[in-house]
Amino acid sequence: MTASQGAGARRNRLYFRGAVVGALLLVVIATGYVIYNVNFKKKTVAAGVSFDLSSLFFQRTTLPPDPANPCIVLQSQIDGTRTGDYQAAYDLLSTQLKQTTSFDQFVKNARDNQLLLKQISAYDFPAYAAQGDSAFASGYVYYTTGGRSKVEAYFARENGAWRISRLTIAYE
Q: Where do the domains of the chain lie?
């Protein structure tokens, strides 16, 4: 082997060693970047509440869905209470219920239950029964913690719109 061939082989080995060290360094940096993003750069996005709109569509009728059906009124009332829109939620109560529960009592009760209300993740009120100016709906409210509450509501039709006349929510 000549001197120039020996120097070329040495240069190739140094080049190869440098390429291996560079590749390992790149792998270490990429791994560190991924670990940093996974462990330290967390962005929490609150999931929206899932509304059940299945009660808008009935197989038994050819009429268009009633957008103000009791199930939607019930979901709107609970969600208004959950988001702090107390006046809108209170307005969905019947005149009879408003006579027994003042707005201040309603707001106090909502604030007392705010921890549970903030955990609502979904509503499930698939159907309702209506007869004349009264109706009944039942279903569930689901929570981000995995629990659920059984909900039963009675309605009265006032001025052409459904209003909640009795609401029972029982955590299961």
A: 1-43, 54-171
CATH 3.30.470.20 fits 54-171, yes or no: no
The pTM is what?
0.64
Q: Shortest CA distance to 167 belongs to which of 69, 66, 65, 96? A: 96
* CA pair distance 120, 142, nearest whole angstrom: 6
CA 87 to CA 168: how far, in whole Å? 20
> How far does Cα 120 stand from its chain's mean position?
7
Residue 69 pLDDT exceeds 70: yes
Q: How far is residue 96's CA from residue 87's CA, in Å, rounded to a whole number?
A: 17
With tokens 């609502």, the residue in question is 120
User: What mean pLDDT do residues 157-169 have?
Assistant: 91
Among the listed residues 14, 15, 10, the one whose alpha carbon sits nearest the alpha carbon of residue 2: 10
> Is residue 156's pLDDT more than 80?
yes
What whole-number distance in Å separates Cα of residue 109 and Cα of residue 103? 10
Taking the C-alpha atoms of residue 93 and residue 20, their distance in angstroms, rounded to an integer, is 73
Distance CA 137, CA 127 (A): 7
d(CA 36, CA 17): 29
